[in-house]
Amino acid sequence: MKYYKRFPLEKMSNCRDLGGYPTKYGKTTSFGVFVRSEAPVNLTDNDLEIIKDYKITRSIDFRGDEDIKKFPSSLNTEGIEYIHMPMFGRADAMGFEDDKDDPSVGFSGWGKTYVQWLECYKGWIRDVISLLASCENACQYNCNAGKDRTGIISAFILGIAGVEPNDIAFDYCISRTMLKPRFIEITPQWASYLKREDGTLITNHPFLYTPKDAMEQMIKYINSTYKNCENYLLSCGVSDREILEIRHKILG
């Protein structure tokens, strides 16, 4: 079977496998287990063929109801178990109900925001980890851009695997680079406060960045408050068995 670090898809540029990272257990994370991506919208037949050939049999969509309604997932299809697991309920992609005002006014950075999410959405994190642990084949998961909600879950998978924080931050940072070719194409999916009056995307908007220090701040918070990611997940209600199951899957 052919494995990809970044999938060669026509309609997604930020679809990536978590395989290939060295770990403290002396192993490398396995390919063909967990795949992160932006929203899989309007995929071509060739895209779907590549994804199905990868043995992806479960897709977990973190987007809110309005995002799903406007831009349905192409992975809600025969042969793939599609699960809608929104982090923000009916809110839009950033977790704000009001799409008229720019919530980045006074925005203190993604690092602080991620820390707040860790404490506000423990139930959601518990449920997502449970779904990842119970998937028998490869599991794909996504939010809108595949960088924030998706980045947090990816950090936990890699943390469970024993990947070093610097590599976890690297995996997070690369999303903005991967998304650049598609920023213009996916502009209709973004909230109005991310667009200029003429409808074009504000590509230097702070919400579109993935700065290394944001992920480092989140990891530092977890380690200082809970000692490690496993203890944090246990505080969410994740079981020891589920943590071990994910470690077993990702380490092969």
Explain how this protein is built:
- The protein has 252 residues and is of the alpha/beta class.
- It has one domain: Alpha-Beta Complex (Protein-Tyrosine Phosphatase, Chain A), CATH 3.90.190.
- The chain has nine helices and five strands.
- It has helices at residues 45-53, 65-70, 110-120, 122-134, 149-161, 165-179, 212-226, 229-236, 240-251; strands at 16-17, 34-37, 56-61, 81-84, 138-142.
- α2 (65-70) links the parallel β3 (56-61) and β4 (81-84).
- α7 (212-226) packs across α8 (229-236).
- Mean pLDDT is 91; it is low at 90-100.
Give me the number of helical elements.
9
* pLDDT < 50 stretches: 90-100
Mean pLDDT: 91
**End-to-end distance:** 15 Å
CATH superfamily: Protein tyrosine phosphatase superfamily
Summarize the main sheet: 5 strands, mixed
CATH fold node name: Protein-Tyrosine Phosphatase, Chain A
Q: Helical residue percent? A: 40-55%
How many strand units? 5
CATH architecture: Alpha-Beta Complex
Secondary structure elements and pairings:
Layout: E1 16-17, E2 34-37, H1 45-53, E3 56-61, H2 65-70, E4 81-84, H3 110-120, H4 122-134, E5 138-142, H5 149-161, H6 165-179, H7 212-226, H8 229-236, H9 240-251
Parallel strand pairs: 2-5, 3-4, 3-5
Antiparallel strand pairs: 1-2
